[in-house]
Amino acid sequence: MHKHFETEAIRIQTERSQFSEHSTPLYVTSSFVFNDAEEMRASFAEEKERNLYSRFTNPNTTEFVDKIVHMEGAEAGYAFATGMSAIFTSFAALLNAGDHVVSCRSVFGSTHSMFTKFLPKWNIETSYFKVNEVDLVESLIQTNTKILYIETPTNPAVDILDLELIGKIAKKHNLIFIVDNCFATPYIQQPIKFGADLVIHSATKLIDGQGRVLGGVTVGSKDLMQEIYLFARNTGPAMSPFNAWVLSKSLETLAIRVEKHSENALKVAQFLEENEHVELVKYPFLKSHPQYEIAKKQMKIGGNIVAFELKGGIEAGRKFLNHIKMCSLSANLGDTRTIVTHPSSTTHGRLSEKDRLEVGITKGLVRVSVGLENIVDIIADLEQALNA
Ligand SMILES: *Cc1c(COP(=O)(O)O)cnc(C)c1O
User: Fold this and answer.
1) Rounded distance from Cα 206 to ligand 1 centre (Å)
2) What is the pLDDT of residues 221-234, one digit of tens each?
């Protein structure tokens, strides 16, 4: 069964019910019934694979997870209520008190809070390397290091880390290599091919793609996923069947959406590169991107996030946002609607300047999550705001 990506995204489907429905129904049920005592015993003893209780599995979450498992080339997975619950639960399941993590500093804000504020409650410390310090990774590894963690492309500066290189370091030191693949989606990049043991997504972003529901998912090897599954089914961060139903439908159009998002984003990046008010543009598939060769090696296309540096720093950034007419000012990304943010005065405004610079956030940095509106209208809005 090696059908193409788009085909499996559409054709992987939970078994039909007695009504022979074409589209998968929504299974809004907290539990499932048994015919007799023996069936119930065998099911709880896990001699029989079936749904027992929706905190463990549900036909809708299973369908969603099966698709992601297939797309990422993984063996097993589990769906969570949010991206953060996927990240936190995976770490909590695999780590013991006193373990150590090595991570790139450029991680999602709440992931950074988990590393610096919450995991230390259990005496779990994290050592950071910056995107341009991959050569330091080995020197950060300690005898108690268990996980090596990265995101690529990074948020919001759109830097690229070399999955193959970092995968080799993880393997050499017997570390669990975990990649947050949210920005790329499994259509663009499959980290398991480059040595990742686990791949995590916030399904809230491009997987939903329409800004409707929250969700998260972790996929990887059978052994690691079994540990995460047992921890999760007892601690309760499960995705709701409704969100799984929405997200499984969303996956049917992931390939075509991400193609168009990336086509629009490349045009936005090319437009910005030519604009006189723009100092610098970062987009993985622009030749000027410092890690262009690595991006070409591991990514199919460039994704939908473009970062650029305005001439004129913080004031220019705020002014640009104030003159945007059509695009949305919002913290989300990966929506059909183009979203513009100015991290240094909003999402990352509370960080010190030093902390901001460590993750590549300069004062004039603007992040655009390029949507699916007509490209002429997207560029027209950005252009009039740049000129204003
Ligand atoms: C949004 C995001 C998360 C967190 O996901 P939620 O669904 O909001 O909990 C994690 N990682 C990255 C890269 C994200 O963009």
Assistant:
1) 11
2) 999 999 999 999 99
